[in-house]
Amino acid sequence: MKTVMVRPKLKLKKSSLETVLNIVSVISIMALAVYIVLIWNEIPHTIPIHFNANGDPDNHESKNVIWVFIALNIVIWSGFSLLERFPHKYHYSFLTEDNTEKQYKNARCMLNCLKAEIVLFFSYESWEFIQFPLGKLERLSSGSVLLAVLIVFLTLIFFIVRSFKLK
Predict the structure, then answer these.
(1) Each residue of 93-108: b (16+ CB within 10 Å) or e?
(2) Which helix (H) or strand (E) holds 30?
(3) How far apart are CA 104 and CA 94, in angstroms?
(4) How far from each other are the two terminal CA atoms of the chain, in whole angstroms?
(5) N or C: which end of the chain has fewer CB within 10 A?
(6) What pTM, to 2 d.p., does this model score?
(7) Is the separation of the CB atoms in 58 and 49 below 8 Å?
(8) 81-106: per-residue pLDDT in tens?
């Protein structure tokens, strides 16, 4: 096993999982945008934009702020998609000639999973955020943020452990 000094640029085919995660992410962004358009006239002109630890609103703004959710999701999706194209630029602990392709695929899959998790979380939180001014929720749930952090943390652990097994 010889350590790789220069990281080669490899043309790697996306896995089925990565393709499915990309499709699901894009569909969630599009579904949120369509939902906003469909209910736009039902949303009050002023909506809560910040909630305290109990899920009660403590700041209000124009309903136009809702479009920031779509923009944020698109920026996150695009940013992660761009990063996925450069696995040779990531930091690897045990990169060798024998495991370079596997390490690149593992790292790219990790980014793809994180991208999908974050986009789906923001889509859900955006939907929930919109439900509040429509009177369909009394307060925002606080558990969803903790669950999202836990999922992201577990995903990172899974792929980091997997990378050590690929050495």
Answers:
(1) eebeeebbebbbbbbb
(2) helix 16-39
(3) 12
(4) 9
(5) N
(6) 0.85
(7) no
(8) 999 988 888 878 778 888 888 989 99
